[in-house]
Each structure stands twice: as C-alpha cells, then as structure tokens.
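One record is kept unedited as follows:
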Amino acid sequence: MNVPGNGEKDLAKFAQAIREMAQGGSNALGDVTLAAGTTTTIVADARCTEGAKVDLCPLSQASAVATVWLAETRRGGFVLGHDAGGVERAFRYEIRRP
C-alpha cells in the first residue's frame, strides 16, 4: 500500500490510499519465526509503540497449536512469550497503534 507523504498535494494519491485501506490494505504487516527451544522472541519493528495491539496469524499447523502471548510492547518493537516447542513456528503479524 502506498501512503502519501506529508507534502503530497495530489488528491488522487490520497484517494488511492483510502481505497486500498477500505479493501483491507495495510503497511503494518510483518513475519516472525519462533525458534525451537526458546520461550521469548524479540521483534524489532519501527511501527510498534507502547500499548500497541499485535495480532498474530499462524502460518503452519505447528504454529497453530503453539501457546503464544504478547509479553510487552514498546517503541520500536514487541516481545512474544511462548512455549519452547520442538520446531520453528512461523507467524504473520499486524500492528495496530493506540
């Protein structure tokens, strides 16, 4: 999704950005993999801030059965707590700022 810059004057670019948002577009997506045998994963993401909402979507069956929670949000990233698991588990996430 293209987001118009602060100095943008072309209304068509704003209209396109709004249309993309209305159709589910988002620039707040990322991927994270939980390493096997670990119980904490730190994710660096400049779009995150304290109090943000982080939604996770499992990308495999192993990911779907993992126990995962949002342990902390902060400026520039977040921390996931999770069970150790025997394999890597991949997730897609979306950040929503307060």
